[in-house]
Target: LemA family protein
Amino acid sequence: MSTPLIILIVLAIILVLMYNSLIAKKNQVENIFASVDTLLKKRYDLIPNLVASVSKYMQHEKSILEDITKLRSQANKTNLSDKEKIDLDKKMSSALGSIMIAVENYPELKANQNILHLQHSLNEVEAQISAARRAYNQAVTDYNNVIEQIPTNIMANMMGYSRKDVFEVSEDERKNVNVKELFH
Model:
């Protein structure tokens, strides 16, 4: 076998490996985002029950309930981009946090079995979403590394791959929680 033929075969193998690596990273990101999407849907399905359960008690927090309902209807749109879903998730996390804090101000509501069950369900879904976000962010980091590193960046550019966004914590969520304010 001649040297040029060996070099050509080695180059072809390297290109195939790079191509397969890029496809695998892209598919991993899409697969994990689909898992996050499923959990977000589960969260959005719980929201009507939550709003119905708390609405008669929480007349003063009507704007929070309206915001949550509005965000849920936005989330049910079918043509949202991944970035829009990530942004909507941030807003929904903040709104749900506000409603759970507000529940503490209504002793009858806090003791209601439906609310306790919904809080438990939401906490469980939030924990699952958190784990899925971590997995997604890791997959996106791996993907972004591959499409930016040499030599795979050349092939990624030819394939039209671009950076993907990760789930980030909002500024409000970065602040320390004042526990005293939560319980008075």
